[in-house]
Amino acid sequence: MQKTKWIVRATIISLISVTMLGLTGTTWAYKGEKYASQAKITLKKAEMIALQTVPGKIKDKELEVEKGGTGLRYSFDILSKGKLHEVGVDAKTGEVLENSLPGPNAD
Length: 107
Known about the structure:
The protein has helices at 2-20, 43-53; strands at residues 57-65, 72-80, 83-90, 96-100. By secondary structure, it is α+β, with helices and mostly antiparallel strands. A 4-stranded antiparallel β-sheet has the order 1-2-3-4, covered by helices on one side. Strand 2 and strand 3 (83-90) form a beta hairpin. The chain is extended and about 60 Å long.
C-alpha cells in the first residue's frame, strides 16, 4: 500500500512539473532541430512571431540554413482562411524574413 501511494505521488508531481514547464502538447522534434543550439530565438518565440504575422494554425515547422537574414531561419507553414502561407522568422534576430503564399514549385 505504501509503495502505491509513493507511485501515485510521484506521478502527480511529474504531471504538475510538465504542466508548469509548459511541455504539454509540444512537439519534441522538428526538422532542423540540430541547428537549435545556433538559434538565439526559441522555437516557441518564433511561432508566436509567425502567428502574429499570419494568424492561423501551424501545419509544419522547420529550422533551416537559408540565404537571407543571418542565414538561420524558422520556416512555418500556416493555414489561414483556407490558404497555406509560408512565414520565415530569423532564428537569431526574430525578424520576419518571409510571408508568402507558396507557388506550384514550393519545396
